[in-house]
Input
Amino acid sequence: MSVPGHVPVMLNEVLEYLAPRPGARFIDATVNGGGHTAALLDATAPDGRVLGIDRDPTIIAALHERQAAAVASGRLQLANDSFAMLAELLPPHLMAEVDGVLFDLGLSSHHLERSGRGFSFKEDEALDMRFDPTDPACESAADVLAGRDANELTDIFRTYGEERFASRIARTIVSRQKRDPITTTAQLLGAIEQSLPAAARWRAGRDAARIFQALRIVANDELGAVAAALPQALDALRPGGRLVVISFHSLEDRLVKHFLRDQRHAGRVRLLTKRPLLPSDAEIAANPRAASAKLRAAEKL
Output
């Protein structure tokens, strides 16, 4: 089985704020390609443990192969589920209180380049965008387009994509759907390009990126999952435990910011980052996908 590629973002900063030590226990709530998890396993050797969670069964299966020794020893446990279910995942994995929880909310390179699920418009693929295509609770992106009227799509594109041509794009999509259902990335890209004013079509890729982001967020209920998971993560931490969250767009970062602010006011956490930490210029040069990353960290009191 091919192993999904994913360069761990802000790895040095993650380790600095999680402060792993031998014997410590951590949750990597978005295990992706396993880069952060591998570093945590190394730093907590010989007897530390990590619970890695991911919604994508392909990613979990690949990590079972890549980290076979750690899985066999019991130091790494893998759960194919949403981190919104974090509290329910802890008892069966004997992780009652942990030393740190990490959320890397970025999209995996696997999803963009290898999944074939339409996360990117660079290839013509089925318009799916579900992290777990077997989850009956999730609509595919094509289903979202087919099941919403122009007003609803406009709201989705404005709210989750912050797209200025949201209304024009939504009307074009609904009009096209009446003739030929939009089920592929190429069809959606064509509708977006058609919707834009002639002077703006040269940069249609930027608008498409925002529309694709909005559909992905809705298909996977990403913000709802983050909102549900953050309180569970804080509850799972022992006093002195650390919560680290890396977000990649303003909606996620705002949600995390407000959650940590409210928990600080309630006397439950100490903020370790008063402002979001950004990746270095060197990291961005080596991994351009890190450019939009923002890291926030807090310690449970």
Observations:
- The two ends are 43 Å apart (CA to CA).
- DSSP finds 14 helices and seven strands in the chain.
